[in-house]
Write a structure and sequence with these properties.
alpha+beta; 434 Repressor (Amino-terminal Domain); Jelly Rolls; 2 domains; 6-stranded antiparallel beta sheet; 4-stranded antiparallel beta sheet; 5 helices; DNA-binding; Lambda_DNA-bd_dom_sf; Cupin_2; TransReg_Diox_bact_type; XRE family transcriptional regulator
Length: 188
């Protein structure tokens, strides 16, 4: 049985991070929206902390900013951190019954993020290419999945592992209800 965490995305953290990264780039909201391929009104809502960001929108902004996804969703953490399943900051896809929750952001000096992903059978979660050199490592923990770069998807069952270049389009599709996987994003 899949449990869906009730918590939504951390809006205040996301709003501050988007403003910080936009200002670091020295561009306007309109320019960031244009580069990310999102509506200016959507970006304005996100920067105001009133939007409802999707995984796709946040990835697009992260790619434009040249930062890991975690830089947009993760507040500063203490050295000891526990993430309770029901308290994960879940961010849902607009395209599929897919949810991503960042478990561990990339620490200083490293270039990786750790996520848990859940998905239900139905539409695939199509992911655009991430920053050049990005690699994804996925371990299926529940249910069967079809995962990988477009045209090279593989089927995974519980305990199976796949690694693939994520700097090209790729998809995640649940083949069984309650599919859960551990995803490590490695940035180079």
């Amino acid at each position: 049985m899949q449990r869906t965490p009730p918590g939504g995305p951390p809006l205040a953290t996301i709003a501050a991070a988007i403003r910080r990264e936009r200002e670091r780039l020295g561009i306007s909201s309109a320019e960031l929206a244009r580069r990310a391929g999102i509506a200016k009104s959507t970006l304005s809502q996100l920067e105001a902390g009133t939007g409802n960001p999707s995984v796709e929108t946040l990835w697009a902004i992260a790619v434009v900013a040249g930062v890991p996804f975690s830089a947009l969703v993760e507040p500063a953490a203490s050295p000891v951190r526990v993430v309770r399943f029901d308290e994960r900051p879940a961010i849902r896809s607009e395209e599929a019954a897919y949810t991503g929750a960042l478990l561990s952001p990339c620490p200083p000096g490293a270039r990786r993020d750790l996520h848990v992903i859940t998905c239900e059978p139905g539409a695939a979660r199509a992911a655009d290419a991430h920053s050049p050199g990005t690699v994804e490592h996925v371990v299926a923990s529940a249910g069967r999945w079809s995962i990988g770069p477009d045209g090279e998807q593989v089927e995974l069952g519980p305990g199976d592992y796949v690694v693939f270049p994520a700097d090209r389009p790729h998809t995640y599709r649940a083949l069984d209800p309650g599919a859960v996987a551990l995803l490590v994003m490695e940035y180079r």
